[in-house]
Design a protein that fits this description.
Blueprint (H helix, E strand, L loop, with lengths): L2 H181 L13 E8 L2 E4 L12 E6 L2 E11 L4 E5 L13 E3 L6
Antiparallel strand pairs: 1-2, 1-6, 2-5, 3-4, 3-6, 4-5
Length: 272
Protein backbone atom coordinates (compact mmCIF):
# COMPACT_ATOMS: atom_id res chain seq x y z
CA UNK A 1 0.00 0.00 0.00
CA UNK A 2 1.36 3.38 -0.99
CA UNK A 3 1.39 6.54 1.01
CA UNK A 4 -1.86 7.84 -0.37
CA UNK A 5 -3.70 4.73 0.64
CA UNK A 6 -2.25 4.96 4.16
CA UNK A 7 -3.33 8.59 4.43
CA UNK A 8 -6.75 7.66 3.14
CA UNK A 9 -7.08 4.85 5.68
CA UNK A 10 -5.99 7.18 8.50
CA UNK A 11 -8.38 9.84 7.21
CA UNK A 12 -11.25 7.36 7.14
CA UNK A 13 -10.37 6.21 10.65
CA UNK A 14 -10.27 9.79 11.94
CA UNK A 15 -13.53 10.67 10.20
CA UNK A 16 -15.09 7.50 11.64
CA UNK A 17 -14.04 8.57 15.11
CA UNK A 18 -15.32 12.11 14.46
CA UNK A 19 -18.62 10.84 13.11
CA UNK A 20 -18.96 8.46 16.03
CA UNK A 21 -18.34 11.34 18.51
CA UNK A 22 -20.84 13.50 16.63
CA UNK A 23 -23.36 10.66 16.73
CA UNK A 24 -22.80 10.21 20.44
CA UNK A 25 -23.22 13.93 21.00
CA UNK A 26 -26.39 13.98 18.94
CA UNK A 27 -27.67 10.95 20.82
CA UNK A 28 -26.87 12.55 24.15
CA UNK A 29 -28.52 15.83 23.14
CA UNK A 30 -31.55 13.98 21.87
CA UNK A 31 -31.75 11.97 25.06
CA UNK A 32 -31.54 15.12 27.21
CA UNK A 33 -34.18 16.73 25.03
CA UNK A 34 -36.48 13.75 25.50
CA UNK A 35 -35.98 13.85 29.28
CA UNK A 36 -36.54 17.62 29.31
CA UNK A 37 -39.63 17.20 27.16
CA UNK A 38 -40.96 14.51 29.49
CA UNK A 39 -40.35 16.75 32.50
CA UNK A 40 -42.04 19.64 30.74
CA UNK A 41 -45.09 17.45 30.00
CA UNK A 42 -45.20 16.36 33.67
CA UNK A 43 -44.84 19.98 34.81
CA UNK A 44 -47.55 21.04 32.36
CA UNK A 45 -49.88 18.31 33.61
CA UNK A 46 -49.13 19.31 37.22
CA UNK A 47 -49.77 22.97 36.44
CA UNK A 48 -53.00 22.07 34.66
CA UNK A 49 -54.11 20.06 37.73
CA UNK A 50 -53.20 22.92 40.02
CA UNK A 51 -55.02 25.32 37.70
CA UNK A 52 -58.16 23.16 37.81
CA UNK A 53 -57.89 22.94 41.62
CA UNK A 54 -57.45 26.70 41.86
CA UNK A 55 -60.42 27.22 39.59
CA UNK A 56 -62.54 24.87 41.72
CA UNK A 57 -61.37 26.67 44.87
CA UNK A 58 -62.11 30.01 43.22
CA UNK A 59 -65.61 28.78 42.39
CA UNK A 60 -66.17 27.66 46.00
CA UNK A 61 -64.77 30.89 47.41
CA UNK A 62 -66.95 32.86 45.00
CA UNK A 63 -70.03 30.94 46.24
CA UNK A 64 -69.01 31.42 49.90
CA UNK A 65 -68.37 35.09 49.25
CA UNK A 66 -71.84 35.42 47.73
CA UNK A 67 -73.37 33.67 50.77
CA UNK A 68 -71.42 35.85 53.18
CA UNK A 69 -72.32 38.97 51.26
CA UNK A 70 -75.98 37.98 51.41
CA UNK A 71 -75.63 37.36 55.18
CA UNK A 72 -73.83 40.69 55.60
CA UNK A 73 -76.58 42.45 53.69
CA UNK A 74 -79.21 40.82 55.93
CA UNK A 75 -77.16 41.76 59.04
CA UNK A 76 -76.78 45.29 57.75
CA UNK A 77 -80.52 45.54 57.14
CA UNK A 78 -81.21 44.19 60.65
CA UNK A 79 -78.71 46.65 62.16
CA UNK A 80 -80.30 49.49 60.27
CA UNK A 81 -83.70 48.47 61.64
CA UNK A 82 -82.21 48.28 65.13
CA UNK A 83 -80.60 51.69 64.62
CA UNK A 84 -83.99 53.12 63.72
CA UNK A 85 -85.52 51.48 66.79
CA UNK A 86 -82.68 52.78 68.98
CA UNK A 87 -83.13 56.29 67.65
CA UNK A 88 -86.80 56.06 68.51
CA UNK A 89 -85.92 54.72 71.99
CA UNK A 90 -83.36 57.51 72.37
CA UNK A 91 -86.03 60.08 71.58
CA UNK A 92 -88.36 58.45 74.09
CA UNK A 93 -85.60 58.39 76.72
CA UNK A 94 -84.83 62.05 76.11
CA UNK A 95 -88.49 62.86 76.67
CA UNK A 96 -88.52 60.73 79.82
CA UNK A 97 -85.30 62.41 80.96
CA UNK A 98 -86.86 65.83 80.60
CA UNK A 99 -89.89 64.60 82.52
CA UNK A 100 -87.64 63.06 85.20
CA UNK A 101 -85.67 66.30 85.49
CA UNK A 102 -88.90 68.16 86.11
CA UNK A 103 -90.02 65.53 88.63
CA UNK A 104 -86.60 65.63 90.29
CA UNK A 105 -86.83 69.37 90.66
CA UNK A 106 -90.25 69.03 92.24
CA UNK A 107 -88.97 66.20 94.41
CA UNK A 108 -86.01 68.30 95.54
CA UNK A 109 -88.35 71.08 96.54
CA UNK A 110 -90.53 68.61 98.42
CA UNK A 111 -87.47 66.99 99.98
CA UNK A 112 -86.14 70.31 101.22
CA UNK A 113 -89.49 70.98 102.85
CA UNK A 114 -89.48 67.46 104.27
CA UNK A 115 -85.96 67.92 105.64
CA UNK A 116 -87.07 71.05 107.43
CA UNK A 117 -90.00 69.09 108.90
CA UNK A 118 -87.65 66.24 109.81
CA UNK A 119 -85.34 68.65 111.62
CA UNK A 120 -88.32 69.94 113.60
CA UNK A 121 -89.52 66.40 114.33
CA UNK A 122 -85.99 65.34 115.30
CA UNK A 123 -85.73 68.14 117.83
CA UNK A 124 -89.11 67.10 119.23
CA UNK A 125 -88.02 63.43 119.29
CA UNK A 126 -84.80 64.34 121.11
CA UNK A 127 -86.83 66.17 123.71
CA UNK A 128 -89.24 63.25 124.06
CA UNK A 129 -86.32 60.77 124.11
CA UNK A 130 -84.71 62.70 126.99
CA UNK A 131 -88.00 62.69 128.86
CA UNK A 132 -88.34 58.95 128.19
CA UNK A 133 -84.76 58.30 129.37
CA UNK A 134 -85.38 60.25 132.58
CA UNK A 135 -88.63 58.36 133.11
CA UNK A 136 -86.86 55.02 132.49
CA UNK A 137 -84.12 55.95 134.98
CA UNK A 138 -86.74 56.82 137.58
CA UNK A 139 -88.60 53.61 136.80
CA UNK A 140 -85.41 51.53 137.06
CA UNK A 141 -84.55 53.19 140.37
CA UNK A 142 -88.02 52.50 141.74
CA UNK A 143 -87.91 48.95 140.34
CA UNK A 144 -84.52 48.35 141.98
CA UNK A 145 -85.87 49.56 145.30
CA UNK A 146 -88.91 47.33 144.83
CA UNK A 147 -86.67 44.33 144.03
CA UNK A 148 -84.53 44.97 147.10
CA UNK A 149 -87.61 45.30 149.29
CA UNK A 150 -89.07 42.13 147.75
CA UNK A 151 -85.81 40.21 148.35
CA UNK A 152 -85.65 41.49 151.93
CA UNK A 153 -89.28 40.50 152.46
CA UNK A 154 -88.62 37.04 150.99
CA UNK A 155 -85.56 36.64 153.24
CA UNK A 156 -87.58 37.62 156.30
CA UNK A 157 -90.34 35.22 155.25
CA UNK A 158 -87.80 32.40 154.74
CA UNK A 159 -86.17 33.11 158.11
CA UNK A 160 -89.59 33.18 159.78
CA UNK A 161 -90.53 29.85 158.16
CA UNK A 162 -87.16 28.37 159.20
CA UNK A 163 -87.57 29.58 162.78
CA UNK A 164 -91.13 28.28 162.94
CA UNK A 165 -90.05 24.89 161.59
CA UNK A 166 -87.09 24.78 164.01
CA UNK A 167 -89.34 25.76 166.90
CA UNK A 168 -91.77 22.98 166.00
CA UNK A 169 -88.90 20.49 165.66
CA UNK A 170 -87.39 21.51 169.01
CA UNK A 171 -90.76 21.32 170.71
CA UNK A 172 -91.27 17.84 169.25
CA UNK A 173 -87.79 16.75 170.41
CA UNK A 174 -88.37 18.23 173.87
CA UNK A 175 -91.69 16.42 174.12
CA UNK A 176 -90.00 13.20 172.98
CA UNK A 177 -87.15 13.60 175.49
CA UNK A 178 -89.62 14.34 178.27
CA UNK A 179 -91.54 11.21 177.31
CA UNK A 180 -88.31 9.14 177.29
CA UNK A 181 -87.19 10.53 180.66
CA UNK A 182 -90.64 10.00 182.16
CA UNK A 183 -90.81 6.44 180.80
CA UNK A 184 -87.47 5.65 182.49
CA UNK A 185 -88.40 7.44 185.76
CA UNK A 186 -85.58 9.95 185.24
CA UNK A 187 -85.78 13.50 186.51
CA UNK A 188 -85.82 16.31 184.01
CA UNK A 189 -82.83 17.98 185.72
CA UNK A 190 -80.73 15.06 187.04
CA UNK A 191 -78.31 15.64 189.91
CA UNK A 192 -74.65 15.39 189.06
CA UNK A 193 -71.67 17.57 188.31
CA UNK A 194 -72.04 21.15 187.25
CA UNK A 195 -72.80 21.76 183.59
CA UNK A 196 -69.78 20.71 181.51
CA UNK A 197 -69.74 20.47 177.70
CA UNK A 198 -67.40 18.45 175.45
CA UNK A 199 -67.12 16.50 172.22
CA UNK A 200 -67.04 12.84 171.23
CA UNK A 201 -63.38 12.09 170.36
CA UNK A 202 -63.64 8.41 169.38
CA UNK A 203 -66.38 5.77 168.97
CA UNK A 204 -65.62 2.07 169.56
CA UNK A 205 -68.67 -0.23 169.37
CA UNK A 206 -70.57 0.39 172.66
CA UNK A 207 -67.99 2.83 174.09
CA UNK A 208 -67.08 6.40 173.30
CA UNK A 209 -64.15 8.55 174.31
CA UNK A 210 -64.95 12.19 175.15
CA UNK A 211 -62.78 15.32 175.34
CA UNK A 212 -63.52 16.16 179.04
CA UNK A 213 -62.35 14.24 182.15
CA UNK A 214 -61.42 14.29 185.81
CA UNK A 215 -60.13 17.87 185.71
CA UNK A 216 -63.56 18.97 184.46
CA UNK A 217 -65.32 17.40 187.48
CA UNK A 218 -66.39 14.08 185.93
CA UNK A 219 -66.57 11.02 188.15
CA UNK A 220 -67.10 7.35 187.42
CA UNK A 221 -70.85 6.73 187.34
CA UNK A 222 -71.78 10.19 186.05
CA UNK A 223 -74.04 10.38 183.00
CA UNK A 224 -73.85 12.73 180.02
CA UNK A 225 -76.30 13.48 177.25
CA UNK A 226 -75.22 13.27 173.58
CA UNK A 227 -76.72 15.50 170.87
CA UNK A 228 -75.95 16.83 167.42
CA UNK A 229 -77.37 20.25 166.72
CA UNK A 230 -81.00 20.04 167.78
CA UNK A 231 -81.13 16.22 167.64
CA UNK A 232 -80.92 14.19 170.86
CA UNK A 233 -78.83 11.04 170.33
CA UNK A 234 -78.80 9.33 173.74
CA UNK A 235 -77.02 8.97 177.10
CA UNK A 236 -73.56 7.71 178.02
CA UNK A 237 -72.21 6.45 181.41
CA UNK A 238 -68.71 7.36 182.62
CA UNK A 239 -66.68 4.19 183.38
CA UNK A 240 -63.08 5.52 183.37
CA UNK A 241 -61.70 9.02 183.78
CA UNK A 242 -58.40 10.70 183.07
CA UNK A 243 -57.43 14.33 183.63
CA UNK A 244 -58.49 15.51 180.17
CA UNK A 245 -60.66 12.69 178.83
CA UNK A 246 -63.02 9.91 179.82
CA UNK A 247 -64.28 6.58 178.50
CA UNK A 248 -68.04 6.16 178.60
CA UNK A 249 -70.46 3.35 177.81
CA UNK A 250 -73.50 4.01 175.57
CA UNK A 251 -76.82 3.39 177.36
CA UNK A 252 -78.49 1.31 174.68
CA UNK A 253 -82.08 1.61 175.90
CA UNK A 254 -81.83 5.43 175.76
CA UNK A 255 -80.02 5.67 172.42
CA UNK A 256 -82.01 7.64 169.83
CA UNK A 257 -79.48 7.97 167.06
CA UNK A 258 -76.08 6.92 165.74
CA UNK A 259 -73.31 8.56 167.79
CA UNK A 260 -70.23 9.62 165.82
CA UNK A 261 -67.04 11.56 166.28
CA UNK A 262 -67.60 15.30 166.75
CA UNK A 263 -71.05 15.00 168.43
CA UNK A 264 -71.68 17.23 171.48
CA UNK A 265 -71.85 15.89 175.06
CA UNK A 266 -73.09 17.74 178.19
CA UNK A 267 -73.65 16.88 181.83
CA UNK A 268 -76.91 18.84 181.97
CA UNK A 269 -79.26 18.99 178.98
CA UNK A 270 -81.73 21.81 179.36
CA UNK A 271 -85.24 20.55 178.60
CA UNK A 272 -88.11 23.04 178.37
Amino acid sequence: MNLFGKILVVGVLVMSVLFMGAAMAVWSVNRNYLEANTKLKQLRDSLQNQNRQLQDEQTKLTAQLAVELAAKRRSLARLQNELVALRQDFGTLQAEKAQNVAQTSNANTAMNAMQENIATWRAEMDRLRKQLTDAQLDRDKIFGQLVNLTDFSNQLTAKRDTLVARSLELNAQIAQMRSVLSANNLPLTPEGPEKVDGLVAEVRESYVEISIGKDDGLRIGDTLEVYRGNKYLGRILVERTEPDRAVCKIVKNLQRGYIQRGDNVTTQLKVG
